[in-house]
Design brief:
Blueprint lengths: L7 H20 L2 H58 L25 H57 L4 H6 L5 H32 L4 H4 L5
């Protein structure tokens, strides 16, 4: 899956909306700011629902992807074993005919000790690599599920922060009523900065999910897994 998990355009729209709130808080009239804040709260609430639904769809996609790729690696493992045992003369030559690279010849040729040890080592290394890829798919899947939950929590926090900002904006001070302008711009700016920070973190988490999905379709998922992810 190479399509973006979460649209960069959607995140850009959220960022632009937050900057608009900040700009109007600095120079707009209370009515303009309040109307925009109400709209922004409704927009972010809708985005929270959409992101949650998209996250659930991505987890389902990751479920299917894990099952499909594990099945392919397990088939690859079975073929690697079959080729090895055909070459060793333990299985009949037809045992690996269904594999991509079946063994040549009847097998069972006597090998000297050094060659035999090398063949066994290479087979074991190949098996270990396939098993590592299977385990990596489980690890990547678990991280996607965790990151999806993290993104849901961040979106909840975005909406809560916007609601707090909206409450503050919708409560005019006596001075604002007299001057007709926003006078507590510093507080509004601080709340907006906090909102932008949460949004940036949500965007980063969405990128993490995309990277994990990309890792699941990599040729060797085990190479994509790092201990500090």
């Amino acid at each position: 899956m190479r399509d973006r998990a979460f649209s960069r355009a959607a995140r850009a729209r959220m960022a632009l909306a937050l900057l608009t709130v900040l700009a109007l808080a600095a120079c707009g009239t209370p009515r303009q700011v309040r109307d925009l804040s109400t709209t922004q709260l409704a927009t972010l609430t809708a985005m929270e629902t959409a992101v949650g639904a998209q996250g659930q769809a991505l987890v389902r996609h990751a479920d299917q992807l894990r099952l499909q790729r594990k099945a392919r690696f397990e088939a690859e493992l079975a073929c690697a074993d079959a080729r090895f045992y055909v070459a060793a003369g333990v299985l009949s030559p037809a045992s690996d005919d269904h594999c991509d690279n079946p063994s040549d010849g009847p097998g069972g040729v006597a090998l000297d000790d050094e060659t035999a040890r090398f063949a066994i080592e290479q087979h074991n290394l190949g098996r270990a690599g396939i098993l590592a890829n299977i385990a990596a798919l489980d690890t990547l899947h678990a991280r996607i599920v965790a990151k999806s939950a993290e993104l849901d929590a961040l979106m909840d926090e975005v909406v809560a922060a916007q609601a707090l900002l909206n409450t503050h904006i919708q409560t005019p001070t006596a001075l604002e009523r007299i001057t007709g302008r926003i006078v507590d711009a510093d507080t509004i700016a601080a709340l907006t900065e906090r909102l932008a920070s949460i949004r940036a973190e949500a965007g980063s988490t969405a990128d993490d999910i995309q990277a994990l999905l990309d890792s699941m379709v990599a040729p060797n998922p085990a190479r994509e897994v790092t201990p500090d992810d």
